[in-house]
Amino acid sequence: MSLMHEILIYIYDLIRYAHNMYDFHTMYSFMHGLGLYG
Length: 38
Prior knowledge:
The structure is a single chain. The chain is mainly α. The protein is built from one helix and no strands. It has one helix spanning 3-34. The termini are far apart.
């Protein structure tokens, strides 16, 4: 496996992780707005 390939996979994982955290935050904010949380 080439270095470039490993770097691309690493960046892809970072983006996917950040996207999941963003979705979780959005979902939490939405439910908080509805009064389901806190």
